């Protein structure tokens, strides 16, 4: 089996589902075979069979199971993964090569955030605009994966990954461009250029997205006051925090928390 899946570079996919699911399979006992492609971001270690191939999985690995190809898992411990099922492409168009297995390392946090946003959009069906936005966002993510697989081994990408790992671990701190450049031993210009090429955004934008993703988690899973949530993600001004939450998450902190509470019943 080829290690890549050809995919149209200019055609957004038709999504079937996008969500996070638990998995506890052992010994490759359950085989999955469906009519859609399936992208997974794995939050666990283990092994995966895909057709005749077998992969060792680490937390943060991304895999793509083509339609009509059987997959199975052997996990030492249960875990969770993000999953997007999407229909095979129709018609001819210029294609890119999507990797069937991609080790993301620190970049997994970025992909998890993107998948979470896509899942929220897809859940708003039958809202046509939301579903179209989910499809376009997922197409952008597929192209990002193709570019990342193509660029593996580039030293600039290694620097970008080190910077993303620092931000992931310390996003609530005031991490200036100069400080990050010193920590990775490169110039600010080099870091900025490498990071934008690797992640498609600036370091400050990435940091802000990570802050909002963690704020979303805290708002939905804890009863911490909104002001405390803001401080936990490094934002001291509550009015600015409310503005950012509306911009990135679509509603006020109060509405997000109320909606999460309603879903838990």
From TrEMBL:
InterPro entries: AraC_XylS_family_regulators, Homeodomain-like_sf, HTH-like, HTH_AraC, HTH_AraC-typ_CS
SUPFAM superfamilies: Homeodomain-like, Regulatory protein AraC
Listed Pfam families: HTH_18
SMART domains referenced in this protein's UniProt entry, alphabetically: HTH_ARAC
Transmembrane helix keyword on record: no
Entry keyword Transcription: yes
PROSITE patterns: HTH_ARAC_FAMILY_1 (PS00041), HTH_ARAC_FAMILY_2 (PS01124)
Residue ranges annotated for the HTH araC/xylS-type domain, each copy included: 161-259
Gene3D superfamilies: Homeodomain-like
Keywords of the record: Activator, DNA-binding, Transcription, Transcription regulation
Protein origin, superkingdom: Bacteria
Molecular function as annotated in GO: DNA-binding transcription factor activity; sequence-specific DNA binding
Designated name of the protein: HTH araC/xylS-type domain-containing protein
Species of origin: Phenylobacterium hankyongense
């Amino acid at each position: 089996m080829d290690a890549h899946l050809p995919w149209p570079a200019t055609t957004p996919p038709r999504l079937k589902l996008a969500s996070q699911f638990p998995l506890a399979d052992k010994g490759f006992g359950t085989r999955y075979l469906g009519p859609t492609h399936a992208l997974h971001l794995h939050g666990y270690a283990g092994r995966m069979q895909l057709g005749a191939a077998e992969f060792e999985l680490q937390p943060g690995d991304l895999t793509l199971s083509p339609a009509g190809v059987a997959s199975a898992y052997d996990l030492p411990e249960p875990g969770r993964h993000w999953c997007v099922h999407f229909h095979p492409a129709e018609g001819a168009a210029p294609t890119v090569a999507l990797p069937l297995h991609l080790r993301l390392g620190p970049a997994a946090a970025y992909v998890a955030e993107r998948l979470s946003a896509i899942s929220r959009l897809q859940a708003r069906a039958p809202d046509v605009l939301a579903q179209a936005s989910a499809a376009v966002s997922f197409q952008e993510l597929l192209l990002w994966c193709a570019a990342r697989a193509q660029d593996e081994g580039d030293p600039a990408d290694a620097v970008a990954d080190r910077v993303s790992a620092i931000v992931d671990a310390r996003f609530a701190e005031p991490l200036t461009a100069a400080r990050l450049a010193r920590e990775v031993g490169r110039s600010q210009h080099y870091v900025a250029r490498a990071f934008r090429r690797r992640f498609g955004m600036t370091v400050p934008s990435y940091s802000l997205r990570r802050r909002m993703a963690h704020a979303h988690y805290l708002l939905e899973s804890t009863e911490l006051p909104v002001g405390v949530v803001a401080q936990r993600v490094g934002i001291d001004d509550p009015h600015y925090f409310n503005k950012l939450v509306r911009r990135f998450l679509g509603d006020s902190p109060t509405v997000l928390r109320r909606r999460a509470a309603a879903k838990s019943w």
